[in-house]
């Protein structure tokens, strides 16, 4: 486990034992895990029946989006089974091959390993097998067969998929290859549905109908094998293609974009806070960035909970081709170039073997220097186990070496290359000259999107025939 720093003294309270009904003792300790979050460690002990258990609860704020970690465990690979797992009290664990699911109510707030989660689930299922055999022998026999398969997965005797989905965004699976991508582990972020907001304790406005493109919690976390997804026409492309979240305050976004032109008109309309569901106002304006395209800037502030959000949406139609923008960094002056990175863009720096998948940072309006700093902060947050006292020496050294390389990039000790590859052509790096043609360090290439890229963006299922008929008329 990562090293913890004590935040408050240990507290003891009396609580009821769920096993014997007598009073037991619960000990609470508020701690902070470096590079992770504030947590509350809870340990219960009953002096009468000697029942003992522990739990981890998150004391900090919820994350802006939910997260879904998918880990492929190969047969005979025992190292993958030893990866540490943080499961919050709102997370669900799934193993599609066994049609098995650990609901949020089970194993609440645990810090374990993949093997530990499976063995604990098998232990809890088998605890009442003797009673089941007396009441329902057929059901008990089916569970015995299932437990054999589950323990086989825990022992690494079969290949399976380990999925942990958390609408609160506080669950985690260790990546031993950090900061490099893990071929066995994929992480996706998603917006919480109204049902998930309500389950997390937020006020949800039940007056209006849900949008047709909102997926239910069951659909969102359901495992669907690759190549078998079937979605209605037009339900994916419109929502994914024009979505770029700017991770900064509205003042930061405005200060950057106002370098190009000021908005002609700022429109204000009522909206709902995505954090607490209270009524708030959203301001929107369109701005034209030279050599790029028209962009729509939206900013909202909630007076009830203080939540602030800025969104940068591309204007116009979806381009026919993607764009690859690369710039060669030679001096500190190049670090001040403005950068617009959409959430569909990948970030690559060949000199440090860095390759970030889409969605890792979301959408950003920043500079080259700010982008590098946010990459470091994001990777620290996603790979906190590499920095803890339980990490192996090889992992610590690999992370230190990567951090030193990133710091050298900020000092520009040697030339390096920043590459943004966006299949929707919504990313941009500003030139340091008056025109793109005069900037020899900046290169832009167009490329044809692959079928898989169109599938990920929902463009293969997009049906515009009805709109085409209207335009033809």
From TrEMBL:
The keyword Nucleus applies. Residues 15-175, 271-431 form the Zinc finger ZPR1-type domain. Pfam families: jr-ZPR1 (PF22794), Zn_ribbon_ZPR1 (PF03367). SMART domains: Zpr1 (SM00709). This is Zinc finger ZPR1-type domain-containing protein. Belongs to the ZPR1 family. It comes from Ceratopteris richardii (Triangle waterfern). GO terms for cellular component: nucleus. It is found in: Nucleus. Keywords: Metal-binding, Nucleus, Repeat, Zinc, Zinc-finger. It comes from the Eukaryota. InterPro entries: Znf_ZPR1, ZPR1, ZPR1_A/B_dom, ZPR1_jr_dom, ZPR1_Znf1/2. One of its GO terms (molecular function) is zinc ion binding.
